[in-house]
Amino acid sequence: MRPTRPQSVKELVAQAENFTFNANIPFKHWTRAAETLYQEASFAMSDGDYGRAYVMLYRHSVLVLKCLQTHPQFKDPESRKAFRPLSKRIDRVIADLEEIKPIINDEYAEWERMRPAGLKLAEQGQIKSPSSYGEFAARDPSLSGNATVLDASENQELAVELAQKELARRDTVRQANRRTRVYGDTILTSRFGDGQKLDFSLQSQMEAVRRATESSQQDLCEGQANKPTATSHRDAVPQSYIYPSISKSRPLQFDEAPQTPPLPPPPPSLPPPSRPPKEYIHAPPRDPSYTSRRESPVVPNKVPVVDSLSAPYPSHEVARKNQPPLPPKTLDGPPLPKKERLAFKPGAYLENGDPIRSVFLPSKLRAAFLDVAAPNTNKGLEMCGILCGTPVNNALFVRSLLIPDQKCTSDTCETENESAIFDYCAGEDLMVLGWIHTHPTQTCFMSSRDLHTHAGYQVMMPESIAIVCAPRFTPS
Q1: Per-residue pLDDT tens digits for 54-66
Q2: Where in this chain does the record put each MPN domain (predicted)?
């Protein structure tokens, strides 16, 4: 499939605003949708898919600035608490939009400059609303520009191999950033921690000396009060002696004359007179021998830097004269094309143009989840898990199974402390791609309650999946 023309900023804005805000969906699901949009934009920017990143960021800003504040549950304490971090991040989202906008304009201008003249009239006739897969794909920003489009169903092994390499690269970068932060914290702790220990040690020593001095002086005063006043000089010396006092340093006096009464302070010293010029510099020489003895020899002329350093460090002029002309650089010609990116085409599109991307599941996901849920299954209780993953090359890859805090009954399971789920996903560069749960006493189906729960997952990610397992029935 050949890439189509890149979308303009105006077209991307119209696509971002084309969604339905349903106030009947709980507020917490819309805040989760806003987090998902921001994560989608981050992953799209890492893949070089700036068109999709712009759509996700613009939709995020519309959702936060216009829609969420009109929700009936907006004034609830829990809703205001969930909305606060989204409101604080809106300035960063707008700044990211301003950074991406010139890139999109440049790509669109380059396409306009390089396209054949006959395509202009043909494209003007395609302004009508798209109805077929090809028309929707032509307006998909992930498949436009310099993208190499492949079919995920026909290239599953390639998709998994590319995803493994990209995820390994991201994990390496994330671990390196963590080690850098830990190393910086360790340095700060060692510096400030040792300094505090030294300060405490010095302070304790000073306190001990002060206490010893005060006790010695107190004992001396008590001893002098109890003894008679007529004492010899020899006996008084040990009692009055505590520590030798060090007088303030003074300039040395070399005058051995007897001491006289102190004189008034001298007037402020005047600056020393300037030295007279040396006469032998200006006077004519007496004879040649006198000149050679008193005057310094003439400094020889310096060798030009170009001559002495022309071999290892040639200047532009010398290089042009002594070296043959260089062949023309390849960069002097037309600019090189941008590096092509790989994108797997979606399986389908919704009516508003949102793509349904391919989702890759681990082969051992079901067995691993049933092993974890076995204790609840034996008790006749449901259990649910969160499917977390990452988008790579316009496809979704489930790579983590998260078991959250939950309240389980025989026919329901509700997650609790959902903020911890978002914190974990943000720290591990993951997105919530769906959920999985068990029916310990019933067959495999989606109940009305399950459908209502899953609607919250599909608010802003229509590819979100729901998996039901009935371990007591075959097939499960």
Answers
A1: 999 999 999 999 9
A2: 359-476
